[in-house]
Design brief:
Blueprint: E1 2-9, H1 13-24, E2 29-33, H2 40-43, E3 47-48, E4 51-52, E5 57-58, H3 62-80, E6 85-87, E7 90-93, H4 97-106, H5 110-113, E8 116-121, E9 134-137, E10 141-143, H6 145-158, E11 162-164, E12 167-172, E13 176-180, E14 185-193, E15 210-220, E16 229-231, E17 235-240, E18 243-247, H7 261-274, E19 280-291, E20 298-301, E21 308-312, H8 318-335
Parallel strand pairs: 1-2, 1-14, 2-11, 7-16, 14-21
Antiparallel strand pairs: 3-10, 4-5, 6-10, 7-9, 8-9, 12-13, 13-14, 15-18, 15-19, 16-17, 17-18, 20-21
Bound molecules: flavin-adenine dinucleotide.
Length: 357
């Protein structure tokens, strides 16, 4: 039976970032992951953008989490000697003049203005239907998640800090005992759960971790020559070699892991409404975004089991939110730093058993 101080269950964005926080502190830890094919991090585009286009408004705590995230990914690139952070322009196309007026109205807010470029752009982009002016946001790009997750896993493996397997049981006595599907057992003092959508019906299931299905396509277009992200209620992200990620849908009802034909057609239709160049669909995936009812991260300790922690609910913003809140949780566990009320899982206590606020 293996004994370590801290175990992290999950090696998605959350679990990987947690691992590097523990490493920085010189902690004795182990990451366990079951390689779930539809986990959010494995299918996500990895985009980051401090602006929410729909409203438009600044994303949750953008001024805090964005600089923190960029600094962290750059440091990790150095540590892992691998490139995965790609800073690139993000263009937003408008549906009509009403949405342009909304955008320009919002631009009067000086805080918002720091994150957008003015004036609106008018240059034509080859093959893109952009008769209307379009916007550009600042400090945008993407993290190549397949690369980040793989090199993180390789690093952890090489340092004997990674164990593959499905956690089938957790028992809480003086120490915490974890049992895996292949029969191995691990004992630890502290356990951090970063299980994404698989947290449902588990220890922190009461905190209403839900799952919103998202479908995403990979397409090839040899004629679309763009190195920036395009967005018009969906996104087109270049990933090199004439390949682009086109996504993504939001489905709150469908709990199956199967990519949906309807979603594929919807994404193709959207792509064709913005780009009039030939393309072919190379791949179609779906994943489950983990989220809390109030769409805020879930960070903190279990109401009953001491030394059992959660980092979850990153929703559709794992890349941006992950670094800041994994750091906050680790500093809370080992240095007693308080967790921000707006993300503290304590706010969900009213849903746990008979405990009422
Ligand atoms: C289609 C789509 C597009 C997206 N695009 C973006 C984007 O552009 N930008 C962005 O920031 N976010 C995006 N997201 C959201 C992003 O993917 C999530 O915010 C993030 O991946 C959540 O990471 P996580 O580590 O919390 O969870 P997960 O990625 O789900 O990771 C959980 C891990 O825990 C493991 N695990 C679970 N249970 C067990 C167990 N019992 N035993 C062992 N291991 C276990 C799983 O195998 C998995 O590896 C997108 C999501 C989808 C679905």
């Amino acid at each position: 039976m293996k004994k370590v101080e801290t175990v992290i269950i999950g090696q998605g964005i959350a679990g990987s970032l947690l691992a590097f926080e523990l490493l920085k502190k010189g902690k004795n830890f182990l990451v366990i992951d079951n390689n779930h094919q539809h986990s959010s991090s494995t299918v996500a585009a990895g985009l980051y953008n401090p602006v929410v286009f729909r409203k438009p408004t600044l994303g949750f705590n953008a001024d805090k989490v964005l600089p923190f995230a960029l600094k962290r990914y750059k440091r990790l690139e150095e540590k892992l000697n691998t490139k995965f952070l790609h800073e690139r322009p993000y263009f937003k196309f408008f549906e009509n003049f009403k949405t342009i007026n909304n955008w320009e109205g919002k631009a009067a807010d000086h805080k918002f203005r720091e994150y957008i470029k003015l004036p609106l752009l008018k240059e034509l982009i080859e093959g893109v239907n952009n008769e209307l002016p379009y916007a550009q946001t600042k400090f945008t790009g993407n993290v190549d998640l397949p690369v980040f997750l793989q090199c993180s896993k390789d690093f952890l493996r090489e340092n004997n800090k990674y164990l593959e397997g499905d956690v089938v049981d957790i028992s809480h006595n003086d120490a915490i005992q974890i049992e895996l599907n292949h029969g191995k057992k691990v004992i630890c003092e502290k356990l951090i759960l970063a299980r994404g959508h698989q947290e449902q019906n588990q220890e922190f299931g009461y905190s209403t971790v839900g799952a919103t299905k998202g479908d995403i396509l990979t397409i090839r277009s040899t004629e679309l020559k763009c190195d920036y992200t395009l967005s018009k209620g969906f996104f087109i992200l270049p990933i090199g070699n004439d390949l682009y990620k086109v996504g993504s849908t939001y489905d709150w009802e469908d709990k199956s892991h199967k990519p949906s034909l309807g979603a594929k057609e919807e994404l193709k239709k959207r792509f064709e409404s913005l780009v009039n160049l030939p393309y072919e669909v190379i791949n179609h995936e779906s994943g489950m975004r983990p989220g809390a009812k109030d769409r805020r991260p879930l960070v903190g300790e279990h109401p009953e089991h001491k030394n059992l922690f959660i980092l979850n609910g990153l929703g559709s913003k794992g890349v941006l939110l992950g670094p800041f809140y994994t750091n906050q949780l680790v500093e809370h566990i080992f240095e007693g730093r308080p967790i921000d009320n707006e993300v503290n899982v304590e706010r969900m206590k009213k849903y746990y058993g008979n405990i009422e606020n």
